[in-house]
Please model this.
Amino acid sequence: MKKLAWLAVLTAALGLLWAPAVLAGEIKVGGIFDITGPTSDVGKDYGEGAVAAEKYINAKGGIDGDMLKLIPNDYAYKIPEAVNLYKKYLSVDKVFVIQGWGTGDTNALRPLVNKDKVVFFSASYDGNLTDPKQTPYNFFIGTDYSTSIRAAVKFAKDSGAKKFVFIYPDHPYGKNPIPAGKEYAQAVGLEIGPDEIVELKAIDATSQLLHMKQFDPDFAWIGGTTASTAVIIKDAAKLGLRTKFVINCWGFDENLAKLAGEAAVGRAYGMVPVAPFGADVPGMKAVVESAGGKEMSLHYVKSWVSNLVMAEGLKRAKKAGKLDGPGLVAALETIKDFDTGGLTAPITYTASDHRPNTTLTIYTIGQGAKMDKVKEVTMPREAKDVGK
Model:
C-alpha cells in the first residue's frame, strides 16, 4: 500500500515537471529518495514524510506566501542516477535546494554542490559533511554518525563491555563512521575484534556471526538498515551468541521488533536522533495527522524535521532578501536552539560547525514489540570532531 501511495504521489509530482522553470510565488525543491533500492526498507517512509511535510508547510502559508514545490524522484540508491537527477534539477527545474538521501551519493555530489552553490539537505548524517570549510552547502538534522557511534561505544563501555566489534555493509554509509568508533573504543579501553561485513540486502549472516563468535564480543555495532539488522539479530539468537547490539539510526526503528521478533528483546539498542512516530511530544500531533491514519516509522519523522528546518531557513533567507543558495546557507547558520516540538533535540548550525546537535536517545526493544526508552545521551560538542 505504501509503495502504491508513493507512486501515486510521485506520478502527480512528475507531471509538474512540465511547468515553467520559474514561477512567481513558488520555490522548487529537488527530491532524491530511495523507494525501490537496497535502503528502501527505510527510504519509503522518508520519502512519504517529505511529501507530507511539503503539504503541511504550504497549508501554513508556505515560505511567507511562497509555496514549496517538491519534485520527488526515486534513484534506487544508484549514485549515477542521483547525479543525473541533480543535473536535471539544476538545468530544468532551476532549484537551489535539494532534499537528498544516501551517504555515497551525497558525498559524490559534494563537488557539484559546492560549485553550483546548491543547499543539500541529506538523510545521510555522515560526520564528513559537518565542516563548513569543506562542505558549506551540506546540512542534515540528525545526530551525525560519528557522534552516534561514539555514544554507542560509550553505552557499551558503561554497561560493562570489555570486547567490541563492528558490523557494517561495504558501502560509504556503513564504513565512514567506523574510524571514529574505533578511535573512541581504543580511547576508553575496549578490545576490538575483527570487522564483519554484512550487506544491506543480506538474508543470512551466519558465517559472519560464527566468525565473530570466536572473538565473543560483549557488544557489537550494527551499521546497516532495519532489514539487515533484523537478519543479524535473528541469526545471533539462533547461534546462541551472548553479544548485545548497538545500532545506528537507520537500523533501529518501530519495524525492527516485527522483523526480528523475540530475538531483539534485551539484545538490541538503537541510537535514535528523533522521537518515534506517535511519541507524546508537542510536535508529533501534526506529524501523525499528516499520515492520514497510517502507522509510519520514525524515518517519516526524520524527513518531516528536515523539511521543517529547511523551511525555517528559507523564511530567514527571504526576509533577508537573499533567497538563493548562499543566502540560504547564511540563514541556516543563524539557527540556534531551533525548537522542533520535541521531535529532535534543539538544532543549531554555525559558520564553523554544521552538526545540528550531539544529543540522541537510546532505545531498546521491550516486551510486546515496544520501543522502550533507555536514556538520553549528549556527547561533548568538541571542535576537533567537526568533519570527522
Notes: The radius of gyration is 20 Å. The domain at 24-143+279-357 is CATH 3.40.50.2300 (Rossmann fold).
